[in-house]
Specification:
heterodimer; A: 60 residues; mainly alpha; 2 helices; 0% strand; B: 383 residues; alpha+beta; 7-stranded antiparallel β-sheet; 12 helices; elongated
Chain lengths: 60, 383
């Protein structure tokens, strides 16, 4: 059996998911609060979790 | 984290998911086209073009428009009146009685400048999908049931994130082990998509559950807020005074500068008292446009009795609608919403397949795989 990497701490494991969750929240809220430039922010922020899912998970 | 705690979270995740997965799949599949309901409706049934009228033609009064809508339907009463945002069209909903069931209501669209009744819009594909999505065409109990499924889904998301911790202890974020068995790949993808879409799914599930409670929440608002307006619930349902609708709107707008009317509820309907015309006003900013402010005009005397901002729970209900449907920030937002919806379907299907494949495995073995940081019990590691 190949040597497995060391265990990582809880905060380290949750760092990327937490950042993506924050981006999601910003995206959802921004879309609600404004139009125009604020919409751009909403699309960019909500695009981050989508991009992460597709970048890591879409390949067969 | 102890084996005991992980076992508990594992069982919570398994059972909360199993309870809601079939319904969630239905909601995700019917919800996907509903994200684009504006686009689909415009394609299937384009809005009827309005007649050309000389510039500066004044719109008819609301009372004239209501009379046109009632024309030929003796015994019907007006229930609601709403304003299109993008063209001079007023919609009047009528019915046999103020407390008529939705199926008995009649919807008329009128050109506000000519009074012409536009062709009735056909009940289309998206209306049908929305009814399935809302209550599977089984009425209020089914609507509340689907709301409860949303709460189970929230439980599944939270417990899934808790289980993500031990599972990912030795794996980098985004790992999908493609060089291992199909089962390992499915497990990794379930975890990745689940944790990445988690926040979005949480918001859509929560707002969906809030929307499912629209009828009881509105009833609480009526009991709580309308009762505070003097005499609002005393006596029989008042008929709106002839010629009184337009003055009611004019009086309200004079008292609320900078706001525009979204709809008017007639006395005795779900959105007004038995005595008032309720005019629901929208603010001018994107946020205040969604948080409606109702003004109550006495239907018999025409007096403006109260302008009452919505209480917090009605604010939550009104904001839950756009946040659930994703139709509030243009087409790019809708496209992202659609991808997140499809990713959620993948999470549901992979979760179901993982359970089907390994339902026979004892809980102990499944928890062991979490404690070993993502090494499945029944899939030997690569040599």
């Amino acid at each position: 059996v190949a040597r497995r990497p060391d265990r990582r701490s809880g905060p380290r494991i949750l760092l990327a998911p937490a950042l993506l969750a924050a981006a999601t929240a910003v995206g959802l809220g921004a879309g609600l609060l404004g139009d125009g430039a604020v919409d751009l922010l909403a699309w960019g922020a909500l695009g981050l979790p989508v991009a992460a899912a597709l970048a890591f998970g879409a390949r067969r | 984290v102890t084996r005991r705690a992980i076992t508990g979270w594992f069982l919570v995740h398994k059972w909360s998911s199993l309870v809601c997965t079939a319904f969630l799949l239905m909601l995700c599949v019917t919800g996907l086209p509903l994200i684009f309901h504006d686009e689909i409706d415009a394609l299937v049934a384009p809005a009827q073009p309005l007649a050309e009228v000389p510039a500066g033609t004044r719109p008819l009064s609301l009372d004239q428009l209501v009379a046109r809508a009632l024309d030929g339907h003796p015994g019907e009463v007006p229930l609601y009146l709403s304003f299109d945002t993008d063209r001079p069209v007023v919609n009047v909903t009528t019915g046999p009685a103020p407390d008529a069931a939705e199926e008995a209501m009649r919807f008329h669209s009128l050109d506000a400048r000519t009074g012409a009744v536009l062709l009735p819009r056909e009940v289309g594909f998206t209306d049908f999908l929305l009814r399935i999505h809302t209550d599977m065409m089984l009425g209020l109990p089914a609507e509340l049931f689907l709301g409860a499924m949303g709460l189970f889904f929230i439980t599944a998301i939270v417990s899934g994130v808790v289980l993500y911790l031990p599972f990912m202890a030795r794996l980098r974020f985004g790992t999908v082990r493609r060089d291992r068995s199909a089962l390992v790949k499915r497990l990794d993808r379930h975890n990745l998509f689940g944790v990445v879409t988690g926040m979005w799914a949480l918001v859509v599930a929560l707002t969906g559950s809030i929307n499912a409670a629209v009828i009881p929440i509105t009833e609480v608002w009526k009991a709580d807020q309308l009762a505070a307006i003097a005499g609002a619930s005393a006596g029989p349902v008042a008929a709106a005074r002839p010629g009184g609708v337009q003055p009611a709107l004019d009086r309200t707008l004079a008292a609320a500068p900078g706001m525009r009317p979204q709809f008017i509820a007639f006395p005795g309907t779900a959105w007004s008292s038995d005595r008032h015309l309720a005019v629901f006003l929208q603010g001018a900013t994107p946020l205040t446009a969604k948080l409606l402010t109702p003004a109550f005009v006495d239907a018999r005397t025409g007096r403006l009795d109260a302008v009452r901002p919505m209480p917090w729970y009605m604010g939550a209900l009104l904001l839950a609608q756009p946040l659930h449907f994703g139709d509030y920030a243009g087409l790019p937002m809708k496209l992202l919403w659609a991808v997140l919806d499809i990713l959620t379907i993948v999470v549901l299907v992979t979760g179901l397949r993982l359970w089907l494949r390994r339902a026979a495995l004892p809980t102990r073995a499944r928890v062991g795989e979490l404690l070993r940081a993502g090494e499945p019990a029944d899939a030997p590691a690569a040599a």
